[in-house]
Amino acid sequence: MNYFLTEEQEAFRQLAYEFAQGKIAPVAAEYDVKAEFPWPIVKEMARMDFFRLWIPEEYEGLGGGITEMCLVTEEMSRACGGIALALAGTALGTFPILISGNDEQKKKYLPALASGEALAAFCLTEPEAGSDAGAIQTTARLEGDHYILNGTKHFITNGGVAKYYTVIASTDPKKGSRGASAFIVEEGTEGLTFGKKEDKMGIRASATCEVVFQDCKIPKENLLAKEGHGFMVAMKTLDKSRPGVASQALGIAQGAFDHAVRYARERKQFGQSISSFQAIQHMLADMSTQIEAARALIYATAKMIDNSSTDYGKESAICKVFAGDTAMKVTTDAIQIFGGYGYMKDYPIEKYMRDAKITQIYEGTNQIQRNVIAAKVIRESAMHK
User: Which run of H or E residues covers position 312?
Assistant: First the structure.
């Protein structure tokens, strides 16, 4: 379908596709098996200016937005959903600075993030605060010119490899979510350590670990927005980033579909290609339809975010739900088309299914997204009485 992308957007998409197929696809299985962070590829991404895409020009970026982030995330995830996260996870960690940082903070941090010299991570989830993000127990106490952070964040994408961590901590636990504040913590800060590196089912090339704060002392200038605004910063960040997760899911689905179509044409049974059987054709038709519907939804939402300051939480949640569910359905069907071979690690298709599952879970489970969507629908209905 023609989504009427600009020439520049189309050029970035093509560049990302060629990069992903040339640099990522050949090593995706190796990084998956070793569960290693792909530093050589990340440095290549930086040289290609991919990290500059969503950073404003005044901070050494290319001035793009969510649409550009989605296009590049999709193409890279088409080759490997885990490796693509080095880029997408940095976007997630950068958004709180873009959304709520003052000019001094932006001047200090964004150029290094734009160049790819620094990666970022977003620290919200805790052992007792997953879907219930308002239950965070990490605290930040102001002492003179510094805040003292204590607590543990877990399942943190880019944990241990990022240079900058945007962290949600409670400055007033009595106020619950209204007592949360947002901070920037730099790598090497005394009291910042890293705990367990997670051994994951999928996205194994992505670094995921605990981030621990033990009397971690940061300058009060590292507070984002104001005290008590942390939960708002977190929710605005996730509303902006969820189309990126949806694009990761879309890319994974598209990659699995590409493999399934090729295999269906090549695999012979009963003296003919299995692509000639109606049962397989209908599966491919459904997969193609689901992928294109997800793409239309994501691109429309991304354009809405880039061109509007209105509330887009519902649309952001919708595209994350639909694309995540699509990725699981398409990758499951792709394995079915491969048959027994699809279940074997000798073929690339089983990895797509393992990578797809997380897109239904992180940045708000698809069940929580349905709560968000339903609440908004009900409010809108009441307003239009």
Answer: none
Is residue 1 situated within a structural domain? no
pLDDT tens digit sequence for 259-270: 999 999 999 999
For the question of residue 30 being annotated catalytic, the response is: no
End-to-end CA distance of the chain: 37
User: Between the CA of residue 214 and those of 138, 195, 365, what are the distances in Å?
Assistant: 10, 12, 29
Asked, for residue 221, whether it belongs to a domain, the answer is yes
Does the residue 164 lie in any domain?
Answer: yes
CATH of the domain at 35: 1.10.540.10
Best CA proximity match to 173, nearest among 204, 203, 151: 151
Find how far residue 117's CA is from the centre of its chain.
19
* Minimum mean pLDDT range among 1-10, 77-86, 94-103, 278-287: 1-10
CA distances to 290, 327, 352 from 27, rounded to whole Å, are: 28, 22, 14
2 occurs within a structural domain: no
Residues 245 and 371 placed together within one structural domain of the fold? yes
The answer to whether 100 and 225 have CB atoms below 8 angstroms apart is yes
pLDDT in tens, 183-205: 999 999 999 999 989 999 999 99
Name the residue range of residue 153's domain: 121-228
Of 9-18, 136-145, 308-317, 346-355, least confident by mean pLDDT is 308-317
Question: How many domains does the chain contain in total?
Answer: 3
Residue 32, pLDDT score: 98
CATH number at residue 366: 1.20.140.10
Strands (E), the chain: 120-123, 139-143, 146-157, 164-170, 180-186, 192-197, 208-219, 223-224, 268-269, 272-273
For residue 384, name the pLDDT band (cuts at 50, 70, 90). Answer: confident
Name the band, by pLDDT with cuts 50, 70 and 90, for residue 309.
low
Which of 104, 227, 363, 380 is catalytic? The answer is: 363
Length of the chain: 385
